[in-house]
Amino acid sequence: MKERLIVALDVSSLKKATKLVDVLYPAVKIFKIGSQLFTKVGPDAVKMVHKKRARVFLDLKFHDIPNTVSLAIEQVCAMGVFMANVHASGGRVMMQRAAEAKKKPLVILAVTVLTSIDKEALSAIGINRTPLSQAERLAMLAKSSGLDGVVCSGNEIRAIRKACGAKFIIVTPGIRPPGSGTQDQKRIMAPKLAISCGADYIVVGRPIIQAKNPLYAAQKILRGIY
Ligand code: C5P
Fold it and tell me: Which residue ranges form the domains of the chain, and what is each CATH number?
């Protein structure tokens, strides 16, 4: 579990993010920087995590024309992060160009169906399939486009593992220890179950960063308590 937990630094300032990394590292070794923190402080957030010797998952979920995504991935490579992502729904050419733009070791994932989306929300955007079937379809498209793995909910891990093989990296957000609030997440799963279903990494935000004692909350997950 030690290398599998990614904590989302979903906070509004570099000071708050630094405090969380100070408290959680080295128990937690990978931190996710998403649009809130990156919009506020940019690459300084990445530098801060690297300075603490931890790794970065840069979660900017690129979704644009192939040329723009390819140029953005070049910039991500220059930052030396461990992992980054694009939206699989950007299509095959966009994902191929993202994979080709990789110049240094970088894991590029495709977001399948956001964990905040359920069947009704999918149908409202014109996709009349279950989240499971849509996620599986996008995972296969991501794999054949040359990407390293996907972001998907716990409910889709087994099917995607079966369809895409043992080496395909599966990262699962929407993780909720029993009894914690779901907030905006719809397709959730407990940490231990997500790992036993075959996730390589789990992403946890609010259940850790909003806990009274974030290190204690992380340690409970790391010890496989739930
Ligand atoms: O606070 P919580 O644990 O719900 O945070 C989950 C994190 O994972 C957020 O930073 C969110 O942006 C991210 N994420 C997600 N669903 C995806 C991809 C990323 O919740 N499909």
Answer: 5-224 (3.20.20.70)
